[in-house]
Amino acid sequence: MKVRSIATAALLALAGSSTFAAAPDWGKVPAAKFTVFYPGASPIEWVTKGTEHGGARALKKGESCASCHHDETADMGKKIASGQKNEPKPIKGKAGAIPVSVQAAHDGANLYLRFSWKQPAGGADKMDKDNAVKLAVMFEDNKVPRANLSGCWETCHADARTMPDGKDDKKTKYIADGSLAAAKFYDLIQWTSKGAKLDGYVADKRVMEGGKALVDAKGEKKGDEWSVVFTRKFAGGEGDVTLAPGKTVNFGFAIHDDHAAGRYHQVSLGYTLGLDAKADLTAAKQ
Amino acid sequence: MAASNQPGALKRLWRGLRTPSRFSLGALLFIGIATGVIFWGGFNTLVELTNKEAFCISCHEMKDNVYKEYSENTIHYTNRTGVRATCPDCHVPKEWVPKMLRKIQASRELYGKLVGTVDTREKFEAKRLVLAQREWARMKANDSLECRNCHTLTSMDKEKQKPRAKKSHELAVKNNETCIDCHKGIAHHKPKGMPEEDE
Predict the structure, then answer these.
(1) What are the angstrom distances between the C-alpha of A128 and each of A132, A194, A209, A258, A264?
(2) Looking at domain A2-285, which of 3.40.910.10, 2.60.40.1190, 2.40.50.180, 2.30.40.10 is its CATH number?
(3) B133 has a chain A CB within 8 A of its CB
């Protein structure tokens, strides 16, 4: 009897925890289409420099990158990947862009995100030998200035490693004036095809661990189609953006395709994710 | 030596103008009109000769620098519809008075040519920003008149434009901006060291 009680209590405790979160029926969740594109060397310093990027003027007036570029990301990626613009070292065979279907849902305690895309042609030298593919997602809680306009670009700088002007091999993403204490950070989760599930953040530097919100990240390739599902608790710990029904946060994602590393990824523009709220991507309760 | 009683040249001219001519009024009118037409026509022909692309690029300073950039791959040189804007279309006003004022201003370029202000690539690059800023200021002051000879915000069908062009033109209307505010460097390279406030 006692054993049964303990077992029942343990089961209830587990059921209450998010490790037992049940993924939604993805066949019933509508998909939003986003096209990630190859950005080359286009850090925030370039984006905001009017003499280089005509859109800097619109950005200063409060227009988001997506409001001008959402429909032309594929063309932009093609131009950059070919070396016509912002790419001093074009990679042979690099896909200019990848269309991605993104589904989102929640159950009142967990957010579920599913990304699926068709593997584009590749064949470049393997920068990351361990991982054919990595997928990262960032959330931001409307605390970092301009994050609602420029998305992940606030973390992308000219002096980061692999950038043409990057001198420090250890320097990765950071936010100017980023601070966990001041809540000026991007929450970062990543899945890698080798099997890693990383939960970190980007503030004054990038940290790939310590987050407590990510429950699971699973990916698989069926034929030439990749799909990755994240399960994330609404609330976590340090460096985790707290989600809640009715709330909208800024989000963006990036795919390191074809064993790419560093800046040689495919990125989305900055979008919004709403929980039961109208946004570029809405997660409705299932 | 007796002093000459011959009147001065001005006095003689004035006297000649006041003295009735031995020619008929008709002959005088005909000669006057013919001479006027010849001089006026000649003047305008000369002005138009200096208003052609061939004249602009007869100087290597223009041909090897700004013209070369413009003719490499710009929308005003080659485009889908085959309409070309040449140097004077963008840099010389069409109306007579502004055109003459621009021509007078441009006469300083003759001095520059004589003394070789930009007669090498290095000299041109060193002066490019100043030259560009001067032209941007001129176009800003006349509300991009030469652009508006062909383009107007009101005649644009923004629904047919790319989203970023549509957005930018809507912002331009809202903020009362003029073409050159955004469209610098569309026919020639932007100068190195261009200050952000110029963009």
Answers:
(1) 7, 11, 19, 9, 11
(2) 2.60.40.1190
(3) no
